[in-house]
């Protein structure tokens, strides 16, 4: 049995071009989350496009549906839109606005839930496989790529 002990680099998944100081410090160095979101979403409600009104931080994937507080899962919404969306999944809330749905999904970043699950469970999987008594070999993603 062969197990690849991969570990995903979350920052590189979200931004393959990141390097140097930005890579070392993370995307929010020098920013508060709210200020970052105001810049990222152009001080505009992501859902109705209104500006110059109070905006609230809104979870794209609701926390009640497994969403996180990562900035890639946050946007800005006016109070009316935030209440209207509630804890609905984005796809349901914007089912009649496919272009807006596509734009918001593109502007937010790739969800890291699956990569995080792999990172968190890889060693448990290894130990479980070892308990079978079968020979288990491990390797890296680089070795797997080389062998392909």
Helix percent reads 40-55%
Strand line-up of the largest beta sheet: 1-4
Tell me the overall shape: elongated
Our Rg estimate from Cα atoms comes to 20 Å
CATH level 1 name of the largest domain: Mainly Alpha
CATH topology of the largest domain: DNA Binding (I), subunit A
Major sheet details: 2 strands, parallel
Quaternary organisation: single chain
User: Would you report the number of β strands?
Assistant: 4
Which structural class fits the helix and strand makeup? mainly alpha
Mean pLDDT: 83
How many helices does DSSP assign? 8
Order of helices and strands: EHHHEEHHHHEH
Q: Ends: how far apart? A: 17 Å
Low-confidence stretches: none
Strand content: 5-15%
CATH architecture assignment of the largest domain: Orthogonal Bundle
Keywords: Endonuclease, Hydrolase, Nuclease
Organism: Desulfobacter latus
GO molecular function: endonuclease activity
Protein name: HNH endonuclease
